Amino acid sequence: MANSSRNAGWCKFAEECPGSVPGDPAGAACLCERVIDEMKAVFGDDQRRIAHALKVLEYADAMLQSEEQEVFGLVVRAAAILHDIGIHEAERKHGSSSGRLQELEGPPIAREILERLGVDAEVVDHVCRIVANHHSAKDIDTPEFRIVWDADWLVNIPDEFDTSNEARIARLIDRVFKTEGGRRLAGRVF
After folding, report:
1. What is the per-residue pLDDT across 79-95, written as a single tens digit (0 to 9) for each?
2. Taking a C-beta distance cutoff of 8 angstroms, is the pair 126, 76 a contact?
3. What is the rounded CA–CA span in Å between residue 85 and residue 138?
């Protein structure tokens, strides 16, 4: 994988980055950083959603480091960054940010961003499938999906559950988490 030494100083994903984005002849922009920039542009002043996406990315990256099977890091990172990208469109069109509507509205936005950045069609399709199922888990069960699913749960649990009830959190972790890495991380976090 191509990588510019200039990326290593400011992009924490530089070692795994597939290189520069087409249209960036200087090679100064890591693809993951460009996807983050695009996500921030879509969310605008919505700092809560930006922070959520970046925290999901942080947890997903931690789980990538512990995965024993072959996992495509670019798919995981792009999906982690873009998993909620349809929230504003769902609110605008439907007056709701429900998971079902995020799954409906997010994939076209994610596709447009990734295609504009010159990402391989197979990667784009996989990321869009994750975005389209990140609340329901109905039509996908890949290692990449499972990491993003668990990372999103790690961020959402404190917002939706009383984390002081250790027994309840332990049961929740056993029931909803899809990766061993996610369970271990949840055990440390909660």
Report:
1. 999 999 999 999 999 99
2. no
3. 19
